[in-house]
Specification:
The chain is of the alpha+beta class and 328 residues long. It folds into 3 domains: 111 residues; 130 residues, Jelly Rolls (Sandwich); 72 residues, Phage tail protein beta-alpha-beta fold, CATH 3.55.50.30. It is 37% helix and 33% strand. Strand 10 and strand 11 form a beta hairpin. It is globular, with a radius of gyration of 26 Å.
Amino acid sequence: MSNDTQAAAQTLSHDAIEQRAAEFLIAHLHDPDWTAQKQAELDAWLAESVDHEVAYLRLEAGWNGADRLSILRAAPPLPVRSSPRFEGNKRFHAAAVVLLCAGIGGAIYATDKQPQDQVFATPVGGRESITLADGSQIELNTNTELRLPQGSRQAVLVKGEAYFQIKHDPAKPFTLDAGDHRVIDLGTKFVVRRKETRLEVTLVEGSARVETAPGSAHPQSAVLAPGDVAVATNDDLKVTRKPAAMLADTLSWRSGFVTFHHTTLSQAAAELNRYNSEQIVITDDAAAHRVFGGKFRTTDSERFADVAGTALGLHVEHRGNDIVISGK
């Protein structure tokens, strides 16, 4: 086969893949009868070849980008049900997708170079599990936001708390950015909790390095062993150790519980408040500094307040959406 003939065959194959990808995309976006079987057909086609997956994702990125730019607002609406007319026009709409994406090719190829982040977020009281392409797993706790740049072993913890079980790859270490600090996986299970200016990293298994982000005015780093807890602020990085039992308590939110040991009532209430719209309010300093312990469901603020009130001899009452605890 001559070079010209081979190039022509490759072009034809590429066009056929683009056409099929566009047909799938149109059906997925606009067919109200999209079923699990159709999804399985799409998944099977994507799994056949990396070229299939790249074509589909590229067209999808172009379509989404066009939607954000309102390019499609003037276009006539697509049929809303699967019908002979829809089937007959599918190739026309598929071609339109290809042409549309080609028309904003600069944005598409910029996406190839700088992939759009996937964003995962949980509401107050919510949890979510994410499985990455390499088998690594991330569990998000309440009121948490995580960004995953596509095509890289990297994540950004915008806020909240997450548990990471990372498949180690020495050639491509997993990195987590959180504010002015970075966690680098060295074969690891770890928990990261981000507050405004404070980052807490608890290592459960393996090893990880915590360091300030590149270009920091105060560069610091520490390699953690199981049981180590690193607390990083804007200008400091300290490492302490937790006993195995307390380490397990750190992860109890994964089962829907929080556990307190010799914790002040104000600290315990603040922890429960992370998970609930109904807030626990402590009205006086004496009650706030009372020491308390126990294991409670993250969603059961009322039981927590009742137990605390009985155990510590405090007054508990409901005021609107608050549970108020005060000295008698």
